[in-house]
Amino acid sequence: ILCLLYSALPLFLYTHHVLILTGSRLQRLLPAVYSDGVYQPMKEPELPNPRKISNVAMKGDSGLSSVNNRTVMAVFFGYHVISEVISTDNFGCPAEFLNIEVPIGDRTFDPNSTGGVILPFQRSQWCKHSGKSPNNPRSQVNTASSWIDGSSIYGTSHSWSDVLRSFSTGKLASGPDALFPKESNDVLLMWKAPDPSTGSVEPMVYTVSFGNNRANENLFLQAVSIVWFRYHNYLAEELAKKYPSWKDEDLFYHARKWVVAVYQNPNEQVPQDVDALLMGMISQIAEKEDNVVVEDLRDYWYGPVKYSRTDYVSSSIQRGRDLGLCSYNNARRYFMLPPVRNWSDVNPNLYQNNKKLAVLYDNDIEKLEILPGAMLETWGDPGDLVSEILHDHFQRLRDGDRFWFENTKNGLFTPEEIAKVNNISFYDVILAVTSVEAGDIQKDVFTWASDPCPQPEQISAVKLVPCAPLVVTNYFEGSITGYSVLLLVLCSFPLVSYFFAWVVAQWRKKDLKKIQKKKRVTSIKRVIADGVSAQEWHGPKEPMCSVFIQIEQDQEIIVFDSRSIVIRTITLQNYKSVSVIQSNNRGCKTLLIKVPKEYDLVLFFYSEEECVGFIEQLRMNGIPISESKMKERSLLKAAVTKRQRSLILETFFRQSFAQVLQINQSDIESFEAGSCSKVREALQCELSRTEFADSLGLKPQSLFVESMFSLADEDGNGYLSFREFLNILVILMKGSPEEKSKLMFNMYDVDGNGFLSKQEFFTMLKSFIEISNNCLSSDQTEQVVESMFKEAGFEKKAELTWEDFHFLLRDHDKELRLTQLRFKGRGRVVVYNKTGSATFWHLYCATVYGENRRTPVETGGKQNMQGVHRENSQMAGKASNRSGPQNKTTSTEPRLYTEAKKETYKKNKIHQKMQELKRGIENYRRHIVFMVIFYGITVALFIERVYYYFFEAQHTGLTEVSLPGIAISRGAAASISFMFSYILLTMCRNLITFLRETFLNQYIPFDAAVDFHRLVAKTALVTTVIHCGGHAVNIYMFSNTPLSVLSCLFPQVFINDGYSTVLKHIFSYLWLVTGITGVFLLAILALMYVFSSAHFRRISFRGFWLTHHLYVLLYILIILHSSLGLLQEPKFHVFFIIPALIYVGDSLVSLSRKKREIGVLKAELLPSDVTYLRFQRPADFEYKSGQWVRIACLSLGTTEYHPFTLTSAPHEDALSLHIRAAGPWTTKLREMYSPKSVAELNSYPKIYLDGPFGEGHQEWNKYEVSILVGGGIGVTPFASILKDLVFKSSLKSKMTCKKVYFIWVTRTQRQFEWLADIIHEVEENDELGLVSVHIYITQFAEKFDLRTTMLYICERHFQKVLNRSLFTGLRSITHFGRPQFEPFFISLQEVHPEVHKIGVFSCGPPAMTKNVDKACQLLNKKDQARFTHHFENF
């Protein structure tokens, strides 16, 4: 009895009725006792361990009867009254724990002496305005009303009371049985205590609705509450009978008035047989009133959900420390009681207990706390201190309550009614609401008497079933699989998106192939008759391919691929016998043809009949075969594969070059023991025509290969021996100009008569042109031949001797001297000594853009370069002094490619690095400053949130949950909010185009908006991963955190009702708003990022277009995701509002343009799959050269917009675009504007226009010298710029730009013939020489290759004689191979020494722009003119 009563005793001492509203701050009678004087409670070693106090002072035998025969009814009636006036059971928020350490070896809680066991204790709810200084120490909050006003019956608020009411006849709402309240629901937060005896979280009884949220805590308290529920309804019925005119409100409140009055009168689950339970409580004698607490309360009281047991006594002692209560003696002094001086004076009957307790308190009686002292002084009746506290408290309750029933001034009751209330006891209440008859129970229900109900046997712990021990629930148990699955599912989003993108890409590729196949002009295909289909085996782990085999009458086997293209020709006419081996197992359908001097042919036929039939065809065509059989495995092992043959050929070529260039074997490779046999095998092998052609990177059927091979094949056996290959290699690598010209002469002297006819000369040129994809027509070739003959004075000659032929090449001795035959994968010798032998042998792979070669300027050397600068001098038209006086030409171009004459001072490495850093900062200062500002804000937001949650949010209780996870996730969320908001500004194209023309362009790199967009997106992706990682930790930690803590942090999600556990199953978190939106956000981001990658964007632009338009849904989900505000107020809108408004405004501007249909004036299908569109120019459409637009064509069945650069000039009345068909959309567009489609539609399809938009190319006119570099379709912006430049110069407009160098890099001059027309127009109108054009045709090998030398000679001949290019028809210089940007830029620094800044504008493949940028960066490290690079990739 006393333990239950005394657990609230500290609150009686604490309470002073000044503010008595629910949730009011409790007022202290005595000063607070905290270790810091403010809020930190007293604990060890200042005070003893509460569990030790419980074990020493409150432990004892149970089963002793009450000294005064008090009944169990008195216990729970008193407990009901306590809950009426005081409640501090609600935990404080944020959660603070004052856990009780269990002594090692504790019999109940630590039987195995493991140590480290705790009894969780969470501090009570406190007033937020307290606990700030010693003058304002922490004060707790009373969640009850403090008055005896029936709040435990009717609730502490009007809303609670309304939920309990039935609103009919003044009664409280009942369940199916009118004698019991209705079952509780989620509207009322009823405390549902778990069953500590089973460790189950299932409630002991079903919960019903009461005014006290803890009324369902046990059966006895529940029974008392039901009595008052019934009594209210009983009075309502009686009042309704007496006053039939009263309405529900009158009946309810009058009944409530009488119930409260009876409740105030001091005279005094849900089991269906509540009457019997009440009778048992009335007849059962309670435990003896002493210091002993039964073990059910001391060892087996139900604990928090995670811990099934706790010590009620230890928790009560700890609660007193939490409340900062004074000592036992100080309380006695306050109530004018004499303080105790000796431990024996507390209670002489318990002196032995006192001595043990004294040891714990260091024998200092002044340290004794109020609860242990009050318990010890009790014997039968409450001690002096308890009596004074209770008397003082309830007297103040009565005297301070203006609604007390005995207060005649409030007019609630008449004197007669007051007298009637005084005569009503709890005995009368029980008789009125139960089936108990008068005489069944004693009138004093709180004290037992022998009559009329006999006293049952006194209950003790020995006679009860042993209680289940402490069980610590692992909330995460059973969720590991779900948690792992959740992480795997989230991590699989990118993979699923990638797979989806791959499927879309494959579908788009297939669709594109269908379109290309449909539009492809049907070519004349070779008719293959009497052929056989099979699968060719290439070797182990190599995929087989479908082939078609045809046997010719001249004993040749021709192998075709699935596209009917010849991939191999095998000649067998010079062999007496060819070994043919057929497999004798696995269906006997594998055939091996041993090809002498080549790799073998292994065929897998589809049946044995086909295999046998093919062997028969070999015989019928006269091929001598030697047939045998073996197992398939042995057959494949015996075959010489193409891979094996290539290894032999590699050794063949290495030894050949080593012999010719006089290189030691150690310089080539280190031969191991036994490798000599491989060398011998290689030297004995012979090259077939196919292998020879493959080594040159040419087709076996080309005229050049046939001529070269026939010349080298001295014995005419159709193969080149090592010696034959070496003979021709010596001439090509080390021969004189005369020997090389003689070689070329003999190659094409077909009849061997020692003369070269015009036809043979024509055939020679034709073979070179054939290598270059027939870059010249037959008429052009004949024109070249006639022109060269005429210029040399041979126009009357029908045939040329070798001397005549060499005379034709008189101006090009140095080209012939350096000419070699480039073999696939092998480079030429770079430097020779005086004797012509090789000093080193440089092998390099196929030439790529921007091959890095050092120049004399870099090395400080003299003019001894035989490669780049020699070529550059020729391209500038400068005559060489080494070739004799006949080589003189007139130079019309400045020396663009000569090396610099000014030698620079060589600085130390530190100074060089500092200079590089200085120039790098100067080049990208705008980018650096802007990036520092943007990412500075991003990092600052991240750090600010992390710092806040680590150091300034300790009061929120996050340390009890998941501080690292929350801090990281919130920091990442702040950064994400900023980046995802302001990334919108990078897509405000109209705004960027406008701002580029303002002073802000000097400080903000608007041209890098798209690159910055990608960079921010990638950074946001990384931050999102960090954010998700933090939440992964959070979910795990939340699953292991008590509900009382989570309900403090997240009251919107969690409610602590004493029963419910945390969301144990991990997927339950996903059903929250933040969880659902978070998962969808990850899915959308995965789709957007995967489809926006360069690979998938190039293959499926429509997929990129559609997925990127999910950004609307993305931002909606982000707003919803952050709207719940679990830890802080939503802040995403703070970052989002301004960028969103700007973006919406920018989009509206574009939308206003998109609604206008634009008529197409002209459409033309140009070569190289280029579509030319010329369309109307809107009246208000103003743009600058180099700008781009976006167009859409609804006739294609899609609304997607694609960006293209305008090729028209600003002064032109119409707009034009040149669009290359590179994907499905552009291919369909080409079909849509084909003559056939236009004829069917009877008009050109309309287009929709959005733009113009600016980029870096339009700044070409801000530099004195500008370099325009266009590759492929990347030349389109420069078409507009060149036309605009010439137009302005013709008007003599004032321009900053004084010189423009245009470099056009194209695979073949036919690829963009439309641009050649524009350049021709520029050349005709450029009277001031503002534009210098250089064209690089990359399909040609460089001019020092034997295959290109004659074409180069012809080109230079045309340039000299006709002042135009043979290939383009332009006056512009045409170069073979890829440009070397670094020496070109170096020469510009010398040609324009007065210019300090040169603008470089490139557009084309990433490889090309990368090398342009690399050249700019290298030269910007030097103290000369700075190159500012603006580029755009496609």
UniProtKB/TrEMBL annotation:
Pfam families xref list: An_peroxidase, EF-hand_7, EF-hand_8, FAD_binding_8, Ferric_reduct, NAD_binding_6
Limits of the EF-hand domain: 700-735, 736-771
Gene that this polypeptide is encoded by: DUOX1
Transmembrane feature ranges: 483-505, 928-950, 962-985, 1035-1054, 1066-1091, 1103-1126, 1132-1152
Signal peptide coordinates: 1-20
Organism: Leptobrachium leishanense
Pathway: Hormone biosynthesis; thyroid hormone biosynthesis
GO MF terms held by the record: calcium ion binding; heme binding; NAD(P)H oxidase H2O2-forming activity; peroxidase activity; superoxide-generating NAD(P)H oxidase activity
Catalytic function, reaction form: NADH + O2 + H(+) = H2O2 + NAD(+); NADPH + O2 + H(+) = H2O2 + NADP(+)
UniProt name for this protein: NAD(P)H oxidase (H2O2-forming)
EC id: 1.6.3.1
UniProt xrefs under PROSITE patterns: EF_HAND_1 (PS00018), EF_HAND_2 (PS50222), FAD_FR (PS51384), PEROXIDASE_3 (PS50292)
Bilayer topology term: Multi-pass membrane protein
Region (Disordered): 859-897
Enzyme class, UniProt record, top EC level: oxidoreductase
Family: In the N-terminal section; belongs to the peroxidase family.
